[in-house]
Write a structure and sequence with these properties.
Blueprint lengths: L1 E3 L4 H10 L3 E4 L5 H7 L6 E4 L9 E4 L12 E5 L4 H8 L4 H8 L4 H6 L2 H7 L6 H8 L2 E6 L2 E6 L4 E3 L2 E2 L6 E8 L5 E6 L10 E8 L4 E7 L6 E2 L1 H13 L2 H4 L5 H13 L11 H25 L14
Parallel strand pairs: 1-3, 2-3
Antiparallel strand pairs: 4-5, 5-10, 6-7, 6-10, 8-9, 11-12, 12-13, 13-14
The structure holds flavin-adenine dinucleotide.
């Protein structure tokens, strides 16, 4: 097996175009498991770990200060490890930082990256619900040019994404939080688990929006659009964004039902479809509740205990 080690981004793109059979490797926490235990034998590995651009965290400015306009974005290099997402981005990207906290063990979080999670496109990847809830965009680059793919369009099937064979992920652009965000995950135990199911909720008070991402409960990570519309309508009709009154319990229950209805889970060794639907509904109600309490209190960050996985 060849080991290709480009010295810079331009060379990485050229090698990607010349050697479509070379498998990109960043932290290697998925790739090496596949090679060691899954019997995968790519003709070559394309090592991206030394490419400076992929380790950069950059800030893009806000959009002119218009009310309701995006508060700017964080351009997160594809190979930035989870440890840095947790340490550096908790205030700007609280949902993603909470999800990153739950990934694997410290060793996995030191190596594993958001770009690798997107590249693997497992329905159980923990970044996906938070990226869906935030409205992120994947920057896919090849020698032919750059595409910006909304994360909603990125997941095509089980472990299939929208990258062309000659493309690499340069970054994921994530809007800075303008309101509270939460993430919750069910797994058998911390440190070594993939999610049985997961839910992320983000409030976008400036435009009266709520976005929900669900993981590990359908062939791809999915949004819960009907639930989003339902709860946004309830918040608008009752002028609740301004009044900051509690969400009526019946409306929160309906929200949870609609989030569960957006899933199409399967029975597998990690859980039954019925259990997943139930757990997703519970997590949806809880994450919405935590977000709403933070909004009522005027806070945008994670709850103090940090959105730990709920079992
Ligand atoms: C013990 C253990 C526990 C784990 N726990 C979790 C968990 O709790 N939650 C979770 O979500 N995941 C978990 N994982 C899976 C893994 O850590 C994550 O998916 C991680 O995000 C992968 O990142 P990486 O940089 O290591 O990717 P790699 O293994 O290097 O690559 C993963 C895939 O992405 C592709 N790729 C990488 N970078 C790019 C790029 N820039 N452009 C295009 N394609 C690219 C690779 O070709 C490969 O297909 C776990 C893995 C292990 C071994």
């Amino acid at each position: 097996m060849d080991f290709l080690r480009p010295g810079d981004w331009r060379e990485a793109l050229a090698l990607r175009a010349e050697r479509p059979g070379a498998l990109p490797i960043a932290g290697g926490t998925d790739v090496m498991v596949e090679i060691n235990h899954g019997g995968r034998r790519p003709e070559a590995l394309l090592d991206l770990s030394g490419i400076t651009e992929l380790h950069a965290v950059e800030r893009e400015p806000a959009d002119g200060g218009t009310p309701g306009a995006p508060a700017g974005r964080v351009r997160l290099g594809a190979a930035v490890p989870y440890t840095r997402v947790v340490a550096e981005l908790g205030a700007e990207l609280p949902g993603l930082a909470l999800a990153a906290r739950t990934v694997g063990s410290p060793q996995i979080r030191n190596r594993g990256s958001v770009g690798g999670n997107l590249g693997a496109a497992s329905p159980a990847g923990d970044c996906h619900p938070a990226l869906l809830a935030s409205g992120a965009e994947v920057e896919a680059v090849s020698v032919r040019g750059t595409r910006h793919i909304p994360v909603d369009d990125f997941y095509l099937g089980v472990k299939r994404n929208a990258l062309a064979p000659d493309e690499l992920i340069r970054s994921v652009r994530v809007p800075r939080a303008t309101g509270p965000q939460q993430f919750s995950k069910v797994g058998p135990r911390n440190a070594m688990v993939i999610a049985v199911c997961a839910v992320a909720v983000a409030l976008h008070p400036g435009r009266g929006g709520v976005r929900v991402g669900i993981g590990s409960a359908a062939p791809t990570p999915v949004r819960a659009r009907e639930a989003e519309e339902h709860i946004a309508g309830v918040l608008a009709d009752g002028d609740l964004w301004e009044r900051r009154d509690p969400i009526p319990p019946a409306a929160a229950r309906r929200f949870a039902e609609l989030v569960a209805a957006a899933c199409s889970p399967i029975d597998d060794v990690r859980g039954t479809a019925a259990y997943r639907r139930h757990a997703v509904a519970v997590m949806a109600r809880r994450t919405l509740g935590w977000c709403w309490e933070a909004h009522r209190a005027g806070a945008s960050g994670p709850r103090p205990e940090g959105g730990a996985p709920c079992a």
